[in-house]
Design a protein that fits this description.
The protein is an alpha/beta fold. Helix content is 36%, strand content 11%. Helix 6 packs across helix 14 and helix 14 packs across helix 19.
C-alpha cells in the first residue's frame, strides 16, 4: 500500500475510533471545563451539536419503551424516566442505582458525551422505590401547613433519590383543587394558593437545597401548569373555565412562589383553559409563564401530553414546541417523534432558533446541576434510604397532618384506664391503603406493598404492655373480648389521576357495616378516615364519639397512634371546605355554601 493511502486509512481509523470512544475528540472542549461560566459552556456545546443531536436532547423517553438500548446514545436522549410502577426487576435502592447508572453509561457513549437526566414522580417521598420513606400526600401536608416540615420532606426525598441516581423530581404538585370529585385532589395542598404557594415553594427549596449546583440537590418541577385543579365537574384532563383575573389569582398564583423559590422546571397540565389545551397554548406558556412570571427554566410536557392536542402527531408536535414546550415526555413513540421533528425543522415549521432556545435551556440546567461532572448515583447515600432518621420526620408529618373533627366526652386521647381496644376494618392494617396512589405503582395497591408501620401496628405498639389490642376485619370482637374503646378505620382504596374521579363521595357498604357494628359495643368509637379528599360522612359523623381526618398518611402509621394516645397534640386544620352532601359539591370557602366544616377547622385536646 502506498504511504499516502496508508496515511488516509490510518486517519480514517483514528476518526472512527474517536467517534466510537465518546469524549476523546472533545475532551479539551470548553464545555467540558467546569471552571468556565455556564453560559459559555452552553454556547460551546450548542455550536458543536448537529440538529439531530439537539432534537435528541428535547426527548424524554420512558425506560420500558426503549426499543434498543443503543438508541440511548444514538438518539442522544435528553432524559429517561420511570413512570409509576416502572421499576427494576428487583425493586431495591441498589437495583435502582444499577439500572439508572446503566442508562447513564449508554448516554455518555454519545458523540459529545452529554449525560441524560433521569426523571421520576417522587411526589410524597421517593415513592416508587420499595423501602423508601413515604410521606403523607400533599393534602395531608396542607393540613399540617408547616413550611419547615415541607422543606424537610423535600430534603429527604432528594437524598433518597440521589442514592438511586434519579436527579429530576416531577414534584411538587402545586395545583389548587376546587372540586372534591377530582381524582387528583390529594396531590394538591388545599383549595387556596395561600397553601399551595408557600408549601410548594418550601418543598422546592428542600429538593434543591444549596442550589442546583449542590451535590445534594435534585431538580424540582412545579406542576401542572395551570388550572388542572379547576376543571368543570372535577373531570381530570378537563376544561377550566375562568376569566383571566380569576385564573391568575387561583391557579397561576402558586407559580409565582415556585419561581421565586428557584423552580427551573415546569410541567404542563393535560387540562384546557377555556377550551384551549394547555400543551398548545402559547398565551399560557410563552405569554404568562415566561412573559409575566419571568420563568427562565425549561418546560416539559406531561406523559404523552402532546397527544392531547388536535391534528396529526406531526401537527401536535409543531403546535406544542412552538407554544413553548422545550422537552417532550413522549414517552413511547420516540422514533416517530424524532422523524417528525427532523421534518418540521428541515421545512422551517419549527425554526432551528426555537430548537436552540429549548436545548440551550436544557443544557444550562444540566451544567448548573453538575451533571457532566457527577453523572452517576451517589451510592454513599444508599444507607439513608428509608432510614430511621428519615422515618422520624415522616412520622412527625403524619401527626401534624391529622385533623380532629369531633371529640365528644373526651373520647381522645386514649387514657391509661383503657385496657381493651378493638380496631375495626382491614384498612387499619393495610400499608397500601394508607399510602394511596403513586406508591410503588401508578395507581397504588392494597397490602404490604412496601416497608413501614401500619396504623394498627402503631396503635398496638403505642398501647404498651398490659393493654390488649385486637383487629377485627368485620367489626365482630373475639370471643370473650369486651372492648373499652373501639377504633374504626374507614375510607378510600388507592387510586390515581382519572381513575379516582368520582361522582359519589360516600363511604362503601363494608365501611358502613363496620361502623354500625362498632357502635353496638356501647363504648367510645373513634373513626379514622383514610382518604385523598373530603368525603360525605354527615350521617357517619353522628355515630362517632371522635372523628379524625387522616388523609393518606404514608408509611409511618405510628404518627396516627402518637396523637390518638396523646403523645402529640392534634394541630392539623382542614385545607379544604368539607361538604355536608353531594349537592354541595363543589364547595370552597367564600362561595356562600355552609358545609359540614369550614376551611381551617380543626379541634385540639
Amino acid at each position: 500500500m502506498k504511504p499516502f493511502i496508508i496515511f488516509l486509512a490510518l486517519s480514517s481509523f483514528f476518526l472512527i475510533s474517536c467517534r466510537s470512544q465518546p469524549g476523546i475528540a472533545e475532551a479539551k472542549a470548553p464545555y467540558r471545563d467546569p471552571s468556565l461560566p455556564v453560559q459559555e459552556r452552553v454556547s460551546d456545546l450548542l455550536s458543536r451539536m448537529t440538529v439531530r443531536e439537539k432534537i435528541g436532547q428535547m426527548m424524554q423517553v420512558a425506560r420500558d419503551y426503549i426499543y434498543d438500548q443503543r438508541d440511548i446514545s444514538s438518539y442522544g436522549f435528553g432524559s429517561i424516566l420511570s413512570g409509576g410502577g416502572s421499576t427494576p426487576a428487583v425493586n431495591t435502592p441498589e437495583a435502582w442505582a444499577d439500572m439508572i447508572d446503566g442508562y447513564q453509561k449508554k448516554a455518555l457513549e454519545s458523540r459529545l458525551g452529554i449525560p441524560m437526566i433521569y426523571g421520576i414522580d417522587a411526589v410524597h417521598g421517593h415513592n416508587n422505590v420499595r423501602g423508601a420513606v413515604v410521606f403523607p400526600h400533599n393534602i395531608g401536608m396542607g393540613a399540617a401547613n408547616d413550611v419547615e416540615l415541607s422543606t424537610q420532606e423535600g430534603r429527604i426525598t432528594a437524598l433518597e433519590m440521589l442514592a438511586t441516581g434519579a436527579r429530576w423530581d416531577f414534584a411538587p404538585c402545586i395545583t389548587v383543587p376546587r372540586d372534591e370529585r377530582w381524582g387528583r385532589t390529594y396531590e394538591g395542598f388545599g383549595e387556596t394558593p395561600l397553601l399551595s404557594g408557600p408549601l410548594g415553594a418550601a418543598e422546592i427549596k428542600g429538593l434543591q437545597e444549596g442550589g442546583l449546583g449542590s451535590p445534594m440537590a435534585v431538580l424540582a418541577t412545579a406542576k401542572h401548569f395551570a388550572g388542572d385543579g379547576g376543571t368543570s365537574l372535577g373531570i381530570d384532563r378537563g376544561n377550566a373555565q375562568y376569566d383571566d383575573k380569576d385564573f391568575r389569582s387561583l391557579h397561576v398564583a402558586p407559580y409565582v412562589d415556585a419561581i421565586a423559590a428557584g423552580a427551573e422546571s415546569v410541567m404542563v397540565s393535560y387540562s384546557s383553559w377555556n377550551g384551549v389545551k394547555n400543551h398548545g397554548n402559547e398565551k399560557l406558556l410563552n405569554g404568562i409563564l415566561r412573559g409575566e412570571l419571568g420563568f427562565s427554566g425549561f418546560v416539559v410536557s406531561d406523559w404523552g401530553g402532546l397527544k392531547e392536542l388536535p391534528g396529526s402527531s406531526r401537527e401536535q408536535i409543531r403546535q406544542g414546541i412552538n407554544a413553548g414546550i422545550d422537552m417532550v415526555m413522549i414517552p413511547d413513540t420516540y422514533r416517530a417523534f424524532f422523524s417528525d421533528m427532523m421534518d418540521l425543522t428541515e421545512k422551517g415549521e419549527i425554526s432551528v432558533a426555537r430548537v436552540d432556545e429549548a436545548v440551550g435551556r436544557i443544557l444550562r440546567i444540566k451544567f448548573e446541576m453538575g451533571l457532566f461532572e457527577r453523572p452517576f448515583a451517589d451510592r454513599g447515600l444508599l444507607p439513608s434510604v428509608g432510614s430511621a432518621e428519615h422515618r422520624a420526620v415522616a412520622r412527625k408529618a403524619v401527626a401534624e397532618s391529622l385533623v380532629l373533627l369531633k371529640n365528644r366526652n373526651g373520647a381522645l386521647p386514649i387514657g391509661p384506664s383503657t385496657k381493651n381496644i378493638l380496631v375495626v376494618g382491614y384498612k387499619a392494617d393495610d400499608m397500601g391503603v394508607q399510602c394511596g396512589g403513586w406508591t410503588i405503582t401508578w395507581q397504588g395497591g392494597k397490602g404490604a406493598i412496601t416497608e413501614g408501620t401500619t396504623i394498627f401496628k402503631g396503635i398496638k405498639d403505642a398501647a404498651g404492655p398490659g393493654v390488649r389490642v385486637e383487629l377485627s376485619l368485620d367489626g365482630s370482637a373475639p370471643a370473650g373480648f369486651a372492648p373499652d374503646a373501639v377504633i374504626a378505620v374507614v375510607g378510600e382504596e388507592p387510586y390515581a389521576e382519572m381513575y379516582g374521579d368520582r361522582k359519589d363521595l360516600s363511604l362503601g357498604s363494608v365501611d358502613e357495616r363496620n361502623l354500625d357494628r362498632a357502635a353496638r359495643y356501647g363504648k367510645p368509637v373513634t373513626v379514622i378516615l383514610i382518604s385523598g379528599r373530603p368525603m360525605i360522612v354527615t350521617e357517619e359523623f353522628g355515630k362517632a364519639d371522635a372523628f379524625v381526618a387522616a388523609w393518606l398518611p404514608g408509611t409511618e402509621g405510628e404518627g396516627v397512634a402518637d396523637v390518638l394516645f396523646g403523645k402529640r397534640a392534634f394541630s392539623g386544620k382542614l385545607p379544604c371546605t368539607w361538604p355536608a352532601s353531594m349537592d354541595q359539591v363543589p364547595i370552597n370557602s367564600g362561595d356562600g355554601k355552609k358545609g359540614l366544616f369550614d376551611f381551617g377547622y380543626g379541634l385540639a385536646y
